[in-house]
């Protein structure tokens, strides 16, 4: 084949071997490169985002399962609450002893929840006293969120500060909670539950006595239907500022003597729900409650009370008091009843029946703020002791003309220190049995001299007559 033929053949096939435009080829290449860059950038940012998310998850603090999650998951084991799982669910079907199933969760059954303030680590701390418990079993103790295996009333705390302690205790045949928390100075608050079975308890004497750091007590759910004695129950709980006693059953209680005595931080007490129908002793009930300014007695029943001595002794802050529902027909002792009630502006005892009272020693001693005192209803025929009865009062007049003193043995300092007293009639006083009258009118500076002279002459004559009769017997 010659060169001419070859040239012709090339012309015929030139479409098959056609070479593209260099400009178009370059543009296509650039588009492909640009697309690759975009894809690489997208991949890079996706990877970067994934890395950032992973770092955030790794660096963020791990969160423990919420209480709800923990409670709803059914986990069976030696240290778990659930005994069995509900079929087909993650909820508990039944619980271990000392736990109760509530809405698919096992809740710890505890007798009381208390807060203890710990200032010494790794030392045995007494949670409560067991000496008065005839028979008992400590089933389980929870400290903060940890359950303890020990079943004693002593535990060691590994950290300072306040710790929440829940205790499940079975009182079995015990009939007394006397001194249960006496002198437990780490105890600062306590809340009893209805699961604390105290139905068989008959005595709660000195139950919290001298627990000087105790601030709050809730007894509203405590069963006290068979309790007969609450003597000195909160005695000397000097920091106690709040007590919830609503629903407390006191129907069988025979003595509440000293129940709040020396509770210096209590400012208000509500015992309007107290049924004291069988109570015989109210002595020292509020004595030394220096901060107490309000008492709600409600419709208190005191018809069987025999002793009201020192009832409000040294209630320095008490300004008003409602005694209208007090029934005193059986009371035998009213000594120091209102002693040192320095801010009381009025003491209304006009409804008092005192026909069985034998002791009025210091009854109104240093009630310096009262401006009048109505004692016309007082029957003093059995009274033997009137020592210091009105000592230190700032009254200008006092009517005791109706007093029957035929059985009085002692009257020393009876009106002592009544510097402003000007009118006093004791001309009808029978002092036949009086053995001591020393200081009877000591420092009564304003009492009229003539009246005082008459009084002294009358008393001396009566004493002389008594001596004469005794000598000639």
Task: Summarize the SSE layout with pairings.
Layout: H1 3-12, H2 22-59, H3 67-72, E1 82-85, E2 92-95, E3 99-102, E4 105-108, E5 112-118, E6 124-126, E7 137-143, E8 146-148, E9 154-156, E10 161-170, E11 187-192, E12 216-218, E13 242-244, E14 268-270, E15 294-296, E16 397-398, E17 423-424, H4 449-471
Parallel strand pairs: 11-12, 12-13, 14-15, 16-17
Antiparallel strand pairs: 1-2, 3-4, 5-10, 5-11, 6-9, 7-8, 7-10
Give structural notes.
A hairpin with a 2-residue loop joins strand 7 and strand 8. Among the domains are: 41 residues, no CATH class; 94 residues, no CATH class. The chain contains four helices and 17 strands. The protein has a seven-stranded mixed sheet, with no helix packed on it. A two-stranded antiparallel sheet has the order 1-2. Strands 3-4 form a two-stranded antiparallel ribbon. It has 473 residues and is of the alpha/beta class.
What's the quick description here?
The protein is of the alpha/beta class. It is 16% helix and 15% strand.
Number of strands: 17
Helix content: 10-25%
Provide the residue-averaged pLDDT: 87
Main beta-sheet strand count, sense and barrel state: 7 strands, mixed
Spatial strand sequence of the major β-sheet: 8-7-10-5-11-12-13
Strand content: 15-25%
Helix and strand element order: HHHEEEEEEEEEEEEEEEEEH
Distance between the termini: 189 Å
Low-pLDDT parts are: 1-18, 63-71
CA gyration radius, whole angstroms: 43 Å
Query: What structural class is derived from the secondary structure elements?
Result: alpha/beta
Q: What overall form do the CA principal axes indicate?
A: elongated
How many separate helices?
4
